[in-house]
Give the backbone structure.
Amino acid sequence: MVVEDELVRLQCWVSHQDDSLNKMNEVITRQQQEITTLVQQVDLMRKQLQMLMSSSVGEADEPPPHY
């Protein structure tokens, strides 16, 4: 009976570990998707900033329209 009890205890432990691993995998997968989205957004903002900076360089040499 002691061996059977130990076997049941180990099976429960393994089941719990398996559940924990599955939950952690879901979290990691979701985080990776969020990281990918954030990297894409940062790249887009970097490109937009470069465009704004390059277009404003030429404007700095020109007088304002009211002159």
About this structure: The mean pLDDT is 91.
